[in-house]
Description:
Blueprint: E1 5-10, H1 11-21, H2 34-50, E2 54-58, H3 66-70, H4 88-98, E3 102-104, H5 111-124, E4 128-132, E5 146-150, E6 155-157, H6 162-166, H7 173-180, H8 195-205, H9 208-213, H10 221-228, H11 230-243, H12 255-258, H13 265-275, H14 281-284, E7 294-297, H15 301-314, E8 316-323, E9 333-339, E10 344-349, H16 363-374, E11 380-383, H17 386-395, E12 403-406, H18 407-414, H19 423-431, H20 438-442, H21 456-483, H22 487-507, E13 510-511, H23 513-538, H24 547-557, H25 576-583, H26 587-606, H27 608-611, E14 623-625, E15 635-637, H28 648-656, E16 658-659, E17 664-671, H29 674-683, H30 686-693, H31 698-707, H32 715-727, H33 732-739, H34 743-756, H35 758-774, E18 776-778, E19 784-786, H36 795-831, E20 837-842, E21 845-851, H37 855-867, E22 878-883
Helix pairs in contact: 1-2, 7-8, 7-11, 13-19, 15-16, 17-22, 18-21, 19-21, 22-36, 23-26, 25-26, 29-30, 29-35, 29-36, 31-32, 31-34, 32-33, 33-34, 34-35, 35-36, 36-37
Amino acid sequence: MSPKRLFLIDGNSLLYRSYYAIRGLSNSKGFPTGAVYGFLGALRKLLDAEKPDYLGVVFDVKGPTVRHEEYGDYKAHRKPMPDDLIPQVPVLKDVLGALRVATAEFPRYEADDVIASLAARAAARDIRTVIVTTDKDLLQLIDEKTSVWNPAKEMTVDAASVKEFFGVEAGAVVDVLALWGDASDNVPGVPGIGEKTAKALIQEYGALDNLLANLDKVKNPRIREKLKAPENREILELSRRLVTVCRDLDVDLDLERYAVQDPDEKETVRLFGELEFSTLLPGFLKAPRPSVKDFRTIFDEAGLKALAGRIRKAGAVAVDTETDSPAPTRAHLVGLSFSLVPGEAFYVPVGHDYLGAPAQIPRERALDILRPVLEDAKILKTGQNVKFDLIVLERAGVRIAGVARDTMVLSYLLEPNWGRHGLDRLALHYLRETKIPYEEVAGRGKNELTMDKVPVERAAPYACQDAALAWELGAVLCDKVRARKLDRLYEDIELPLIGLLARMETAGVRVDPAVLRTMAKELEGEIGRLEKEICGLAGCTFNINSPRQLADVLFHKLGLQPSRRTRVTKGYSTSLDILEDLAEAHPLARLVLDFRQMAKLKSTYADALPALINPETGRIHTSYNQTVASTGRLSSSDPNLQNIPARGPWGARFRRAFVPDEGHVLLAADYSQIELRVLAHLSEDRALLETFLQDRDVHEETARLVFGEDRGDDARRRAKIINFSIIYGASAYSLARELGTSAGEAQKFIDRYFAELPQVRDYLDRIVEEARERGFSETIFGRQRQVPELRAPDRVLQQAGRRIALNNPIQGSAADIIKVAMLRAGRAIEERKLRTRMILQVHDELVFEVPGDERAAVEPLVREAMEGAADLRVPLKVRLGFGPNWADAK
């Protein structure tokens, strides 16, 4: 039987490593969490990969140690612990306590000494110790029963490999460090002897004592004299004492306490919920705790009819669908789950198809029974990501009515910074419940099954829990939304938008694959031309897509000056901003930027879009994300149509591939300068208001105010950059990069802008201060976004918070306005029973597919819907145009 293993984690080492790896992460209340998150991620990885028998985390003790008492300058140069790391240390210890992971520290001694002493006690019991650290000091402990796992290099160093790793055997590590010193701990070492010399000396003489006994044999006279100098001998002996770990502290290796145990689930769930670590939690719990205590699977019509009767009598129900695809416009219904009271849920399988699957109610028959309650608007529906269910059931012939609560959208209004509002996170955060992981039901990777192939008995608890959690969350989240006075925003904008987005996704957009194929060939030719030109300028053939090879050409072969190295590889960065800087010094960098742009256009759009055409509809069906962008803006994915190029020759050509059905035209309606109009409304700046009220060109006006009468041909473009830089809170340095000028000159432009528009300056200062005091910024429509960064101790985070506070009320209000415009246009089209369909929303633009005979009716309808979406102090203006494709709809 193989010996048991004890893993001892150098707590401070891993905590600092995690802190610098994940800077800036915090929960929604602004509490920093990055170091704890990284530490727990590493811990989970270790537990999964190594499956230790015993485990402990050892921390340095606060205050001076015996080494400080012997040498006053020990670690004297070390910076104090970062302000945003300090509060994470006790939290990490609390979490480790909940996970029942043993921790240890010892008064006046360091973690290294505690680890050494625990390893000695483990060896006495024939237990193998693995020390998890990046600290080279601990290599001295390596022997047949003790090894070191280096998480930075992801490698184990043991008795057989320590010499290859460090250059000497484990027993000589102290001798090397005594000679060399340790800069990280301010251990002096012998002056003038570095790592290379120290290792060479010990390799030649075997041990420090042998070296000192044979100093006359040292060939290098300079080294020989340094080692003979009495003052250096004192330093050497001091250094040897400082780097030698203590192995005999009176620490207790209580195997029962160090044994890997199941966590305290209640406390673990509570702490992970407060930290908002929902993705980490399932890995630490021995098994999920379903919230459903009573779930039933319905296989017969009588049972389903009884359920439908209960739903009608209750007047409210949570609904969830299971499908065979994550793409709703391609998915087929596999089952439905329902919950009417806490802890009770029902699953109705209708499409499980595998060998031995039980008989189920046929899909069409089940929907016939359920249709009266699903389509009854008086019966209020709750769900999680209801848009998905609307699309799936619409394709199955059922149009759900009466949607009242979407837990994903409700959560988004409360916590817009989360970025992800999955049911697992909501259940953990609001209910302290853990959700059955999808992978546990369907498998993962190559073994993953589609839900129709998952056994019913495995799918049912998962589906029932989804409905039950949605039911409980609906009540909790509605109360919180009302308490935060976000209920009108939800009821007037976000809730009705769900159905509109579902209809837009279902409609999709038609693209001409022939146009895209032609563009792909042309782009391929352009990429080849650029590749030849780049290699010609470089004087060699190389892989332009390889950052390492490109860096070698730019910084070594061409001798260009790099501005920074990458953090991970320590190589030279070839990122976008670096190449833009280098483009001023050498044309090759500009050509690489062009090459990357062409390659991205080809792979992301010309090649990818034809493959995304749904064979059933002949159209592309993007997914509109209502709960991702913190500002309230919509985003899209699969594919991301928000990033379709808008300008330049390639942008126009890509948009030309988006076409209507036969007998239709496209109508594009785009807000004109909506964010600047919002700024004028919010700031009430007289000059800015007058510009829009008089219908003058705002960029021309800014050019006149900032550059004066003698402003040149390029002034409007530069003024436009300044206008939007002000909105986004850009610094003088950032503006200088955009304008191609010095930071000093850019600051003069900013100062002149605010001198001419003083109420804008006052407004921007005011909203930052309000956000700092209240903890959130707010849009015209009452949408809130938390800005914890403003109160962060880190100056970089504070500056990021300031930019958010400046921009969010403006961009968020613009986002709300376009959502209102969408709803107004959608309602107007529906009320007039027109066949026109809204098919795209991209930034400040809406695109409609219009039958030829509805052009005259639709144009004024859309204009009124958009220009009347908000009552501002300045008019909203919309540019409308019809065309045979998106590019020509002007």
